[in-house]
Amino acid sequence: MTSSLQGPVHKAYLDLVARGALTSDPAQLEATAYFDRVLHDLIATKPKSFLGLRSRHKSVRGLYLVGEVGRGKTMLMDLFFAALPTRHKRRVHFHEFMDEVHAGISAFRKVVRGKNEDADPVEAVTKPILKSGLRVLCLDEFHVHDITNAMLLDRLFEKLFAGGVTLIATSNVVPDQLYKDGLNRQLFLPFIARLKEETEVVELLSSQDYRRLKFAGQQVYAFGADTRATMDKLWLRITGGEPGRPAVVESIGRQIPVPLQSMGAARFNFSDLCEKPLGTRDFVRIAHHFDSLVIDGIPQMDRTKSDAAKRFILLIDSLYDRGVKLAASFEVPLEQLGRDDKTAFEFQRTISRLNEMQSEEYLAKGLRDAVPAEEGA
């Protein structure tokens, strides 16, 4: 497809290039046309109202964007999501979405109706989704490695597609390679066929890993009292000069405030994350929403900050397991950071990970496919 269809996504991309937030990439520019095609089709099939009743919309063929890490897939999907002129849309990480589906199935099976032999837990989970009027579901990092998900996906998306939901997905894996060598993979093949029918598979053939480029040669940690200017400069580099805006991350039915987010990165103060009632599940959610984090004002953690120290340990574990890039300012050197006997042993691993996370080797690697963990402290 050529870029002749210069719609809202194409224009938003060129605007970022004009502002210096992005370097124009032919592969990314080409991909905007596919997103604009979906956007055009969605607008053309907008649901109509008749006598006060809203008709069910038609299904529109979606998009499955595949490419290597750091090529800008998530950024392009975010531009598309922002351009969608509807509130009936949702953007979520694939594993988070499936986690919610499994939780819904588990809850249904505990009620009386869910214990009947003819009960359909997939119907029970999809019915409220469709009833909400969801039009577009954007799933980031579509990757299937779990047999439970593999056996569920075909029936789940059969109902979602039949209900008119359009899927937009990003992935590092082409559909034919999903769940490769998985147990009972032949039972998964109908879903691959359905996915290829309901979405247009597009490869993003960019040669540059932009995520890696942002951190190449950078000193990502700053120490001492006067570090704000250093972090501001690094934030502008990570975000391409885009200042950012407040946002929220959804976690188990509640919202975690994000002071600033921009271009796949988020910026927090230490107190925003470690002096609030957050746990492992929340930190995993954050790690799946952003590829880079900037944390300001990490203090020395003595006995008066035991709870904050425990949360900081969980936070770093979550970021490290996911491969999230970290830029941070510390009031004291790393070896002086933990001064609490209650967390001394765990803090040794945290310091080791912090040291590794500033290395060129760590910064050069892509995100890892870490599955959400159970709720922690």
TrEMBL record:
<dbReference type="InterPro" id="IPR005654">
    <property type="entry name" value="ATPase_AFG1-like"/>
</dbReference>
<dbReference type="Pfam" id="PF03969">
    <property type="entry name" value="AFG1_ATPase"/>
</dbReference>
<keyword id="KW-0547">Nucleotide-binding</keyword>
<protein>
    <recommendedName>
        <fullName>ATPase</fullName>
    </recommendedName>
</protein>
<dbReference type="GO" id="GO:0016887">
    <property type="term" value="F:ATP hydrolysis activity"/>
</dbReference>
<dbReference type="GO" id="GO:0005737">
    <property type="term" value="C:cytoplasm"/>
</dbReference>
<dbReference type="InterPro" id="IPR027417">
    <property type="entry name" value="P-loop_NTPase"/>
</dbReference>
<dbReference type="GO" id="GO:0005524">
    <property type="term" value="F:ATP binding"/>
</dbReference>
<keyword id="KW-0067">ATP-binding</keyword>
